[in-house]
């Protein structure tokens, strides 16, 4: 087994190294790729040093079984052919191919088998907010079909990459030192603020991030579910939170919902309000699962349920989900 990471210096790329190590992912060879900026840089994995190669249009991917790609959409588009032409399976973290009919969009807890049909040898990893949402929706969908979901997200700075995370941390330092605040990655200062915009606006008033949640959820769940999202950037370093309301076809009791979450694949139920016990990003950082709490009946709608989820978006929302896809393919002998 020969694997590659493309974009290893980034927030997701670094998480790939941690996740592969943590899960003892079986491989014989690892090749790291980056741009000219990080080519030649060394990373240590399980005591062995690996040097970053510059990603180029050549035959470097010949013999590589799986490439974990997280270098942004334009790089994925430009290099997809180079990466896949010798049979490498490209598991792509960008949004470039997610809605293409001939590219499966996969969250192993929900639709792992879709990864087996991949005419272009590309498998797309969904958007981090969508992964977290569908893992939580899946156990409820098994109780009663979910007709619609309204979601408000509370997205961490690191969702916009390693430099965005640094920008937030620096802003807090600059404010404490009474210095001018540097604002480059986000539209406004994020420290001591929330920004009700993630990605650019589309013609219908929703942002691209919000429309990803609508479209990707339907594709992954093979469902006609309607998703209306408001995506908000908050001054949290890592792990996204989501306040979710769902309307099911038939009423689902709080007890049944909690039981389904507790048994749900990839879900941890953390819901004891009397003891102030609910998921929070500070404590879910570094965890594999989607944490669910504040489960309650909607007082305005007999078929409505509200709950709160938190998940580490660099881990489950990106690197871990991609590695779980690879593990699924190995387990199913479907590489
Ligand atoms: N952050 C998250 O929570 C998250 C979650 C889900 C999905 N994603 C997606 O994952 C991708 C990466 O995100 P990130 O947060 O890790 O971004 P990031 O921290 O900004 O890292 C970007 C990476 O892309 C590499 N890169 C840029 N141009 C390249 C080129 N020409 N050739 C090879 N590598 C190149 C960079 O390498 P150099 O340093 O060598 O230039 C760097 O390693 C994006 O598509 C993003 O939407 C991110």
Automatic annotation (TrEMBL):
Positions of transmembrane segments: none
Q: Which UniProt keywords apply?
A: Amino-acid biosynthesis, Diaminopimelate biosynthesis, Lysine biosynthesis, Methionine biosynthesis, NADP, Oxidoreductase, Threonine biosynthesis
GO biological process assignments: 'de novo' L-methionine biosynthetic process; diaminopimelate biosynthetic process; isoleucine biosynthetic process; lysine biosynthetic process via diaminopimelate; threonine biosynthetic process
E.C. numbers: 1.2.1.11
**GO MF terms on file?**
aspartate-semialdehyde dehydrogenase activity; NAD binding; NADP binding; protein dimerization activity
Query: Where NADP(+) is bound, by residue?
Result: 9-12, 37-38, 158-159, 313
Q: In which pathway does it act?
A: Amino-acid biosynthesis; L-threonine biosynthesis; L-threonine from L-aspartate: step 2/5; Amino-acid biosynthesis; L-methionine biosynthesis via de novo pathway; L-homoserine from L-aspartate: step 2/3; Amino-acid biosynthesis; L-lysine biosynthesis via DAP pathway; (S)-tetrahydrodipicolinate from L-aspartate: step 2/4
Residues reported to bind phosphate: 98
Coiled-coil-forming residues are: none
For the Semialdehyde dehydrogenase NAD-binding domain, which residue ranges apply? 2-118
Reactions catalysed according to its record: L-aspartate 4-semialdehyde + phosphate + NADP(+) = 4-phospho-L-aspartate + NADPH + H(+)
Q: Which Pfam families match?
A: Semialdhyde_dh, Semialdhyde_dhC
Kindly identify the residues recorded as the active site.
Answer: 128 (acyl-thioester intermediate), 240 (proton acceptor)
UniProt: substrate binding residues: 155, 233
InterPro entries given in the database record: Asp_semialdehyde_DH, Asp_semialdehyde_DH_beta, NAD(P)-bd_dom_sf, Semialdehyde_DH_NAD-bd, Semialdhyde_DH_dimer_dom
Q: Which family does it belong to?
A: Belongs to the aspartate-semialdehyde dehydrogenase family.
Q: How does it assemble?
A: Homodimer.
The UniProt function text for this chain reads: Catalyzes the NADPH-dependent formation of L-aspartate-semialdehyde (L-ASA) by the reductive dephosphorylation of L-aspartyl-4-phosphate.
Q: Tell me what this protein is called.
A: Aspartate-semialdehyde dehydrogenase
Organism expressing this protein natively:
Dysgonomonas macrotermitis
């Amino acid at each position: 087994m020969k694997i590659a990471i493309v974009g290893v210096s980034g927030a997701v790329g670094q998480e790939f190294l941690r996740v592969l190590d943590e899960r003892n992912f079986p491989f014989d060879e690892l090749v790291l790729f980056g741009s000219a900026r990080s080519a030649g840089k060394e990373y240590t994995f399980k005591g062995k040093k690996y040097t970053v190669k510059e990603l180029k249009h050549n035959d470097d991917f010949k013999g590589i079984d799986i490439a974990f790609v997280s270098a942004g959409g334009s790089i994925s588009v430009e290099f997809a052919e180079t990466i896949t032409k010798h049979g490498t399976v490209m598991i792509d973290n960008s949004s470039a191919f997610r809605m293409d009919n001939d590219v499966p969009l996969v969250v192993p807890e929900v639709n792992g088998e879709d990864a087996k049909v991949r005419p272009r040898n590309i498998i797309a990893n969904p958007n981090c907010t969508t992964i977290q949402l569908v893992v939580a929706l899946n156990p409820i969908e098994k109780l009663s079909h979910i007709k619609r979901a309204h979601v408000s997200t509370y997205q961490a700075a690191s969702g916009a990459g390693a430099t965005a995370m640094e920008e937030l941390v620096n802003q807090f330092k600059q404010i404490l030192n009474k210095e001018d605040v540097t604002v480059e990655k986000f539209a406004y200062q994020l420290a001591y603020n929330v920004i009700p915009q993630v990605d650019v606006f589309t013609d219908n008033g929703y942002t691209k991030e919000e429309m990803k949640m609508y479209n990707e959820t339907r594709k992954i769940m093979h469902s006609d579910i309607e998703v209306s999202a408001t995506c908000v950037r908050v001054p949290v370093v890592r792990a996204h939170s989501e306040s979710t309301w769902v309307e099911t076809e038939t009423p689902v009791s709080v007890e049944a919902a909690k039981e389904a979450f507790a048994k749900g694949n990839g879900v941890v139920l953390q819901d004891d309000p009397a003891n102030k016990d609910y998921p929070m990003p500070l404590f879910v950082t570094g965890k594999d699962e989607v944490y669910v709490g504040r489960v309650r009946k909607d007082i305005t709608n007999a078929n409505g349920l509200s709950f709160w989820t938190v998940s580490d978006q660099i881990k489950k929302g990106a690197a871990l989900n991609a590695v779980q896809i690879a593990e699924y393919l190995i387990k199913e002998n479907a590489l």
